[in-house]
Amino acid sequence: MTIESDCAEASNSAAFLSRMLQFGDSMFPIGAFSFSSGLESAVQEGVVTDVATLRAFAHTAIEQAARGDCIALIAAHRAATADDVDTLVRIDAQVYARKLSDEARVMSVRMGKKFTEMGVKVVGVPLLRRWRECIESSVTPGCYPTALAICFAVQRLPASQAFVVHQYGVATTILGAALRLMRVSHVDTQKILYELTGQAAEMYATAAAARLADMAGFAPLTEILAAVHARAHVRLFMN
């Protein structure tokens, strides 16, 4: 390889990494900070009480996401790469159907719509505009995993990076909420995050090999906590 080609490859890699960091950043304005992914009820009901139970709760959440939303995310990335809107609509419907609680649906749809809107404004490619039109005309709910997959696919960012961003977001949503809900330090949450991110490659391999029909959202305690949260008189987070 020539020096010029080496530089071009490094430049492309740097751009891909920078965009992955941008769209996965907690400051990306899609409203993730408004949600706790069930942690608020878990703390109130005594399910999560300390660092050990917080770690277990966060680990369960990313495992559940890898077996559910992330299978759809990878399938949606393939469909978006092929510019197949009809398949994207079918995948999005499958994601929405597996959200058993109203709060889980609200979280996914609101974040998905905002992510799509930001993608249109920042990236601005035709497929993102068409997807926004599908959401606005109620052709599809517009769930977050689908929006994330489309945004990454149109930028030629791989599905593996979209997977990492999704899982990082699940973990940081919970850990960020923990800092406001319980006695836990930034050091504790960073240690948990470091442990969880180390599992991304194995989880991605499993999700990538799965079929869309393999999506499973079975998590009884999570659904019970969501029902409790919906009836709570005082809430800091939307779910």
Descriptive report:
- By secondary structure, the chain is mainly α.
- It has a single domain (about 40-230), classed as Orthogonal Bundle (Urease accessory protein UreF).
- Helix content is about 70%, strand content about 0%.
- The chain has helices at about 5-25, 40-45, 50-65, 70-80, 85-95, 100-120, 125-135, 145-155, 160-180, 185-195, 200-210, 220-230.
- Helix 3 (about 50-65) packs antiparallel against helix 9 (about 160-180), helix 4 (about 70-80) packs parallel to helix 8 (about 145-155) and helix 6 packs parallel to helix 8 (about 145-155).
- Residues about 5-10 have low confidence and may be disordered.
Number of helices: 12
Radius of gyration: 18 Å
Give the overall shape, derived from the CA principal axes: globular
Low-confidence stretches: 3-11
Helix/strand/pairing category: mainly alpha
Proportion in β-strands: under 5%
Distance between the termini: 52 Å
In CATH, the homologous superfamily goes by the name: Urease accessory protein UreF
Here the CATH topology equals Urease accessory protein UreF
At CATH level 2, the architecture is Orthogonal Bundle
Number of domains: 1
Output the CATH class name.
Mainly Alpha
Provide the residue-averaged pLDDT: 87
Question: How would you spell out the order of helices and strands?
Answer: HHHHHHHHHHHH
**Could you give the count of β-strands?**
0
What about the largest sheet? none
